[in-house]
Design a protein that fits this description.
Blueprint (H helix, E strand, L loop, with lengths): L4 E7 L4 H11 L8 E3 L1 H7 L1 H9 L6 E8 L6 H12 L3 E4 L5 H13 L3 E4 L20 H11 L4 E3 L5 H10 L8 E4 L9 H6 L5 E6 L1 H4 L4 H13 L3
Parallel strand pairs: 1-2, 1-8, 2-3, 3-4, 4-5, 5-6, 6-7, 7-8
Helix pairs in contact: 2-3, 4-5, 5-6
Length: about 240
């Protein structure tokens, strides 16, 4: 990323024209450091075609979010990473919930293919973890991060609408890896805000992943500038 703190707009938009317009409005905003590409565009256009279209309007890194890659048998890791490399993305958002071997293979194959693994396993939803009535054990992210670090990961995803979780991982990660980066979804409609989240993320590079609050704004460029300005105060 170009700066230690910034914003990653999420391109969770139905049409390529709308996505390209959003990028054209925001790609030169200081503090916008990358874009998150998800399934809404790639299912209709195809991953390779979608990336090619987006490359017409930005040189910033494109992180592909397969909603979410990683909770699969380990043997799929190499095939997945190779396809994504061929498509031209820069990084992969991985949620390797299928177990330790899935962490090893999905992180390892991303690195082997020259792609940045951005590793998570938790969502900014109240009923995701077991303590909230969900199906994922409460300390799963600690285990995934520890294994991912051993496999070479330095970039991670932590939900941003829970300051306690952000503080926990921002304190823990620098003890395991040098200069870690955390990507933080959940800013805006899901309840998080950059000031409170980045304030407890000291010791890590921090990037807010923001969707609706930017692409759904009346003026996406101004929204991006406002969020990025807040983020850069911590740089």
């Amino acid at each position: 990323m170009a700066t230690t703190h910034g914003v990653v707009p999420a391109l969770d938009i139905e049409s390529m024209d709308a996505a390209k317009s959003l990028i054209e409005a925001t790609t030169n905003v200081e503090g916008v450091v990358a874009y998150k590409l998800g399934l809404t565009l790639t299912l209709s256009a195809g991953l390779k075609a979608a990336v090619a279209d987006l490359r017409e309007v930005t040189d910033l890194p494109i992180l592909y979010d397969h909603q979410k890659a990683g909770p699969d048998v380990p043997d799929m890791a190499g095939k997945f990473a190779a396809v994504c490399k061929d498509a031209g993305v820069d990084g992969l958002i991985l949620f390797p919930l299928a177990g330790p071997r899935a962490v090893d293979r999905f992180v390892g194959e991303a690195i082997n293919n020259g792609l940045l693994p951005v590793v998570g396993g938790d969502l900014p939803l109240e009923d995701y973890n077991a303590r909230g009535g969900g199906y994922v054990v409460n300390n799963s992210l600690d285990k995934i991060f520890d294994r991912a670090i051993d496999a070479g990961a330095t970039h991670f995803i932590v939900p941003g609408n829970n300051a306690k979780k952000v503080r926990h991982h921002a304190k823990r990660l620098p003890e395991r890896v040098s200069n870690p980066s955390i990507f933080i979804p959940g800013i805006g409609p899901l309840g998080g805000n950059i000031h409170d989240t980045f304030k407890v993320a000291k010791g890590c590079n921090a990037y807010a992943v923001i969707g609706r609050a930017i692409y759904g704004a009346k003026d996406p460029a101004e929204a991006a500038r406002s969020f990025a300005g807040d983020a850069l105060k911590f740089a």
